[in-house]
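Not sure how to ask, but would you mind making up any protein sequence you like and the tokens describing how it folds?
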Amino acid sequence: MLRGEIVKEPPLPRPPNVTREVAEMPGAIFSKLQARIRQHPGPLFPLHVGDTWLDPVEGARMEDLTLATQARLHHYVAPQGEPALVQALVEKLRAKNGLSVEPGAVLVTAGATGALSSALGALLSPGEEVVVLAPFWPLIRGIVQAFRGRPVELPFYDRVGSAAEAIAALRGVIGPNTVAIYVSSPSNPTGRVLPPDWLEAIAALARSLDLWLISDETYEDYVFRGEHVSVARFAPERTLTAFSFSKAYGMAGNRVGYLVGPPAIVAQAQKVSTHTFYAAPTSGQRAALVALTRGAEWISRARALYQTAGDAAAAALRLPPPEGSTFLFLDLRAIVDDRGVAGFLEDALEDGVLLAPGESCGKAYAGWARLCFTSAPPTQVELAIARLSRRLGYT
């Protein structure tokens, strides 16, 4: 080096920059009011999170699992899932969902979130598109973005009135980069249960255009009006379906769900799951097996309690009763002031009522809000709904 020569520093690495796709993902999905929530002086009613006040069926609770009865409880299981659970799921899928599956068609995952992530991770190349029927479960948009895909949001559940209209709406947004259609029935957040002829028409469209179907059937057990039908009945060769023990059996903290589809693509999805969470928790899978074998009566009781809570909440808020799921979706556009829904959520927080902003369920739903009517005991939900009804000027 010569005297006086300026030494150039090597280029710095990218931090603190992140990828464009991650930067565009939503962060505080359920509430931007966390600081105010922490400082709220009175009781809080957490209607913004999809959960249940019920504990799982006896035998499937964490305190029920002991080393005396559960061998290797704290060890890894196979990445596909505990073999006994996989086999039990095969039998359930055949008997309940009408799907002709073998063990290779099932992947046990870290919740339905893990199932959907594994499926989309296996399908998407950068820039490819997934048509997402909206309003939608808030995390699906970010999952598509995380795998470098582009979510194409299609306002659907509140805008489409027939199978023909559904197909016309889909044809309007499907393009050359479309890889899959994401559909959820029963719907989070609208509570809609799509009729079988709609699902059959959507499946036929997917087959005609050589697209995948991503079917979110998390709330299959909670249909109050109508009938739940698995989309895979109509197009098994191109459908990947996500199911959840979290919602079915009140086991959200256990993180167990499962993905079902053609064995060849499920094997590819297992590569994604293995390289992200490796396997769903062993204890959660053991509890899930108990719930699956003993939980029919629990689900029946929960369904009746949920329907009672949902119907009462809908009546108080002047909404149609939900067809399924555990949510109501409120159209606030006519009553919010110049602060928009964000201002209304702040006002509801003063009453201790927490709601999720509708925009988290789709860009076209910035004037809406979502509430879960099972996230607290019925007496608390009833009190929260009464406060919300007053805030809306109904009482």
Q: What stands out?
A: The mean pLDDT is 93.
